Amino acid sequence: MVDMDASSTSLTQNSSPIPPSPSYSSSSIITNYPLISAIVAFIIAQACKFLLIWYTERRWDAKQLVGSGGMPSSHSSTVTALAIAIGIQDGFGGPLFATAMILACVVMCDASGVRLHAGRQAEVLNQIVYELPAEHPLADTRPLRELLGHTPPQVIAGSFVGCVIAVIGNFIRKATAQT
């Protein structure tokens, strides 16, 4: 049995290489800078899709306000704004930023990889079903959603929107903190 005195115990506890996590007050959710940045980035990216469809096709498509796919990627803007805001607030060297950055990378890779190709497969399957004879049991099936993923430029544009929103949000946060 090992006998440890109080001085060696306190030395071990105080010399821990892991710094204590920052304590956050129980402030309101509306002052959560990373969360607000992510939500605003999502809303702006969705609004951009809506306006781009109107500009390019001269038609209003309300589905663009909530749908996936299109320019810019709202998924990319959301997770990028979240990661950058966490980095600005808590530091870019911490585990929280690392976690958010890995999440952002996974989401963006998924958007431009798996979901993009699933959408392309849906196009082919919809065309096959469309060409089936009317008496075929699958001829009346509902078409699959084709606009699921994003091209790399759409992901990059979404990520840019997220970065800009996080930086602007930080300027606003600092300005309101000084007043």
TrEMBL record:
Keyword list (alphabetical) reads: Membrane, Transmembrane, Transmembrane helix
Transmembrane stretches in the record are 33-55
- Protein name according to UniProt: Membrane protein YuiD-like
Q: Does the keyword Zinc-finger apply?
A: no
Provide the residue span(s) of the region labelled Disordered.
Answer: 1-26
Polar residues compositional bias, start-end: 1-14
Cited InterPro entries: DUF212
Upper lineage:
Eukaryota, Viridiplantae, Streptophyta, Embryophyta, Tracheophyta
